[in-house]
Amino acid sequence: MATHHHLFPLSLSVPSLHRHRHRRSLSLLISPSPTYQSYIYIHSSLSLSCNPSRSTNSNSAPTDTDTTSTSPPPPPPPLRVAFSGTDNGAHIYSSIAIADSLSLLHPNTHFLFLSPPSPSLSSTTIPSAGYTVSPIPNPFLPFSFLFPIALLHSTISCLFSLYKFKPHVFVGTGGYLSLPAGIAAFILGIKVVIQEQNSYPGTESWVLGRFAERVFLGFNGCVKYFRKDKCMVYGNPVRVSLKKYTSKAVARLHFFPRSIKKGEGEAQVILVLGGSTGAPAVNYTVLNMYADMLTEHKNRYIIWQTGPDRFAEMESLVRRHRRLFLTPFLHEMDKAYAAADLVISHAGAMTCTEILATGKPSILVPLPTAPNDHETKNAYIMAEVAGSKVLTEDELDSSSLEFAVDEILGNEKLREEMSEKALSVARPHASMDIAKCILSLLSISAAK
């Protein structure tokens, strides 16, 4: 079977990390560099190198410094990292996950997120995670002949923000703002790395990949669109909260504090994700089937995220029901996934990654208007590696969706198989691997 049909497998064409032996020292002194003179602070159990062209002799004997130094290492000086993406949940949560991991590895790190101005999802989500936002004007306008002017405007804004912040590295996670921000970073001589979540790269990632020093990928099949010696297939970062254990019983009581207690048979919870901007096909199909399903199956519950753009409309059309939790956006996704037996969603890269990380059976409805039809590619990869059920929008209606739900929830053995498959290909440590490689990239450069 062709390698590009698999999600996150190791590939001979993709450079792998050179593993180092355990070291006692908690800091590594880096020689002076015009760009960055510092100590890279890492945990003693973590490997440093991610340079595909270099390796270290792990059997070398410890030096005198290793054995005789008794003075405590000085604290690491500040590291500054800039991020950008767009007003999209996948890009936002990828950036936050990488930033969280960098904070753990190098506590004295400062971050700046270049993001769309308020009101926007990023203008509320990123500050709530504890990070600073610098608003940048949108480089894409409805009229294409104005695009060069808008791109220039955004790039100049990014130049001012980055020049003032002086980051040691810029991390682009895709989306329209990554392009002007990446260009500005390149002009200023700042190291550029990108993280592409999908199986097919967006235009912004494809352009930035030409001068990025590292390209972190979620899918192995995406390697062919970039220089192979730059690529690292680590999977997609997941938000830290999803890595924490949450009891299914506790999670369900969070959404249904009165109904679940009554224990009407074995409860089955369906999580419907309409996306950060709202997926019309998914929302309208669930609207047409939820009432009959809840009436026919007394043990079923629905957690339904409509997306902020669709919430007012859905709320006006949906009848209140004690076994239905309707919300525009889910901020506690760890509880939502923990409570769920089945996920119904579009096939965005981050949603697919979270389904794998949490081991949830899924029904995926790829968005046909996604750039380069990447959601269809994502969905069929998920079908192959995790057993996900795929319904195209042409196939989707209330009958086909209800049939697929019954097929999965009515077969416990099938659910267990789908869950095991998903967990077997998950890459829950992607954000930490990416953060380690970023730190190693800085240290290798400074040592040259």
H/E topology pattern: EEHEHEHEHEHEHEEHEHEHEHEHEHEHHH
CATH architecture of the largest domain: 3-Layer(aba) Sandwich
At the fourth level of CATH, the homologous superfamily of the largest domain is: Glycogen Phosphorylase B
CATH fold naming of the largest domain: Rossmann fold
Low-confidence stretches: 1-49, 52-62, 444-448
Q: What labels describe this entry?
A:
seven-stranded parallel beta sheet, globular, disordered C terminus, 15 helices, Rossmann fold, cell division, GlcNAc_MurG, 15 strands, alpha/beta, 2 domains, disordered N terminus, single chain, UDP-N-acetylglucosamine--N-acetylmuramyl-(Pentapeptide), 448 residues, six-stranded parallel beta sheet
Q: What can you see in these coordinates?
A:
The structure is a single chain. 39% of the residues lie in helices and 15% in strands. The strands form 3 sheets. Strands 5-4-3-6-7-8-9 form a 7-stranded parallel β-sheet, with helices on both faces. It has a 6-stranded parallel β-sheet with strand order 12-11-10-13-14-15, with helices on both faces. It starts with 26 loop residues before the first strand and ends with a helix. Helix 2 (89-105) links the parallel strand 3 and strand 4. It has helices at residues 64-68, 89-105, 121-128, 147-165, 178-187, 203-208, 248-255, 280-296, 308-317, 333-339, 349-358, 374-386, 398-409, 412-425, 430-447, and strands spanning 27-29, 39-41, 79-84, 109-115, 132-135, 169-172, 191-196, 214-217, 231-233, 268-273, 300-305, 324-327, 342-345, 362-364, 389-390. The chain has 448 residues and is α/β, with parallel strands linked by helices. Helix 4 (147-165) packs across helix 5 (178-187) and helix 8 (280-296) crosses helix 13. It has 2 domains: 3-52 and 76-238 and 428-447, Rossmann fold, CATH 3.40.50.2000; 246-425, 3-Layer(aba) Sandwich (Rossmann fold). The chain contains 15 helices and 15 strands.
